[in-house]
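Notebook entry, structure prediction.
Reason for the run: the old model in the group folder had no record of what sequence produced it. Starting over properly, with the input documented here first.
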Amino acid sequence: MEYHNPVLLHATVDGLNIKPDGVYVDVTFGGGGHSREILNRLGPNGKLFAFDQDEDAIANAIVDDRFVLITENFRYIKRFLRFHGIQKVDGILADLGVSSHQFDVAERGFSTRFDAELDMRMSQKNDLNAFRVVNEYDAENLKRVFLDYGELKNAPAIARVIIEARENTPIRNTEQLKIVLGRFLPAHKSHKILAQMYQAIRIEVNQEMEVLKEFLEQSLEILNVEGRLSVISYHSLEDRLVKRYIKNGMFEGEPERDFFGNFSVPFKTIGKLIVPDANEIKINNRARSAKLRIAEKL
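New structure, fully documented this time:
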């Protein structure tokens, strides 16, 4: 089974504008598709560091003197690059979201297709998992998760139903969760709503929004001037953060203007938003919601 079919492979790596002797980072190594393409474009003195917190990704490590795989969450990008003696880099690539491998391994609990224990951890080292979110969060926090991360308007009702159901017996697996939430899953759009529910829990378990913010802020700090940032996001919450940070260097509001009404921005947007074409979506259905944004540090 293929670990992960890289989305927008050439466009994402093209966006890095690779220098043969540059230093690059792939913060979402996965099956190594993007990393291999970067290495193909690097010369003998180039260097590539990759991050992946999922222990399963270690099996895909590339044997190459120019390559280092760091098995940590990319929210610690600056710390671990410094550990390896790297202060600045020429480009950073991030393919956000869940890999095909994580969706296809039933016991990880990411997919709506399988019955599995409630887990959804991208790293098995994490204490928080989907079971704890579903069975231990109070009504207010459950409502927050489903409203903020699933964008589900009936989040208060969803929270109440979960709390009522778990009073009798813990909700241990994805099939039980589907049954509990059945009243919110009309046949004509049950898959879409269930996917939103799973997404909400997964984002909470893995602190994905906080991780993305920390990563973007550190990327600005460690990129060289004219260094490139190439980011693929898969849902509006991620894409909104990426778009705003590239535009303003902030996640909310606008930067302060000077006396002349100008404000300094950290990045220059490169090209327009890139999405997969019909052919790529046909080959890889999971590419359908991908959005690629490329920026250059000023």
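Summary: Residues 100-109 have pLDDT under 50 and may be disordered.
The old model has been moved to the deprecated folder.
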